[in-house]
Write a structure and sequence with these properties.
eight-stranded antiparallel β-sheet, alpha+beta, S-adenosylmethionine decarboxylase
Length: 320
């Protein structure tokens, strides 16, 4: 069974003097925005600083001055960005960033990164980059080209785990698995003390959780099937420092790390990543909006042969 875990992500920063996304927009606005990309809201948690919506495909976070939306599967996230632009207006928007990573089955997607930024180009000028080798794991990033300058304190992190340990995959595909069991397995109460959680176990497989504490957030999305296992962890707390815990639990064969405005990226990866993970690619660039983007792909060298995967030549989905 196949599900595209690779995600698309958009961040929009607004002028908080003109609009508060938490106070001035009803939840119905966000319901419509999410529906524009063929997803829907499952549940919501909030505090004074943040609203976190758990989606049928990933997550939406709202602060007073910005939103972050992450979607997976066959969603067309750019349509939600377009809806926001049309409803709010470019005059109230300070910066748009749009990110898309390489997919397992790109041919099954409804659009390409090029299609998406062509649509955004109808509303704003921008620049686009690829972080990572074209024949390996990589991320495409587009950002609006204007006079906006990001704060160095505005940090974010991504940790993506591929080919998780077979025992972990088996655990996370157990029939009747509860959210409490997954949280305990991931040790989230220990790692995220003081956070409030909202999670969902999908049928037949899959798991998502949002966690917030003040302005801090963390979200995890798991596609546990052994044939295409994928775990996405994204946060504005230091995931590089938490990497040893997650890698010990998941034991993946390969990982990606991406950070924005973490100037100590190299030092932190050398300090925290287990030495058995070998760097395959390393990319870094300071963008004109003042964001410092760092991306690295690591592999765990294999010493034992695996069997070839048997494929169904009559599979109607043609996901070969």
């Amino acid at each position: 069974m196949f599900f595209e875990g690779s995600e698309k992500k958009a961040e929009i920063i607004v002028d908080a003097k003109q609009i508060s996304l938490m106070n001035d927009l009803a939840d119905s606005f966000w319901q419509t925005l999410v529906q524009c990309c063929n997803a829907h809201i499952l549940s919501m948690i909030k505090n004074d600083d943040c609203k976190a919506f758990l989606l049928s495909e990933s997550s939406l976070f709202i602060w007073h001055d910005r939103l972050l939306i992450i979607t997976c599967g066959n969603t067309r996230l750019v349509h939600s960005v377009e809806y926001f632009i049309q409803q709010i207006g470019m005059a109230k928007i300070k910066q748009i960033s749009y990110q898309r990573k390489n997919e397992y089955f790109a041919h099954a997607q409804l659009s390409s990164f090029g299609d998406d930024i062509a649509l955004l180009g109808q509303y704003t000028n921008g620049k686009a980059f690829r972080f990572g080798e074209l024949d390996g794991h990589h991320n495409y990033i587009f950002h609006q080209e204007n006079d906006f300058q990001a704060s160095k304190a505005d940090k974010s992190y991504e940790l993506i785990a591929y080919q998780i340990c077979p025992k972990v995959s088996e655990k996370l595909t157990n029939v009747g698995l509860s959210g409490k069991e997954v949280r305990e397995f991931l040790q989230l109460d220990r790692l995220l003390a003081g956070f409030i959680f909202d999670d969902f176990v999908f049928e037949p497989f899959g798991y998502s959780i949002n966690a917030i504490k003040g302005k801090q957030f963390l979200t995890i999305h798991i596609t546990p099937q052994a044939s295409s296992s994928y775990v996405s962890i994204q946060a504005n707390i230091n995931l590089i420092a938490l990497a040893p815990d997650f890698l010990r639990i998941l034991a993946p064969k390969s990982i990606d790390l991406l950070s924005v405005n973490e100037e100590a990226f190299n030092q932190l990866t050398q300090q925290y990543l287990p030495k058995e993970y070998i760097s395959k690619s390393l990319f870094q660039k300071k963008l004109s909006n003042n964001n410092l983007v760092s991306f690295a792909n690591y592999i765990l060298p294999q010493t034992v042969f695996s069997d070839a995967e048997s494929l169904d030549v009559n599979d109607a989905s043609h996901a070969l």
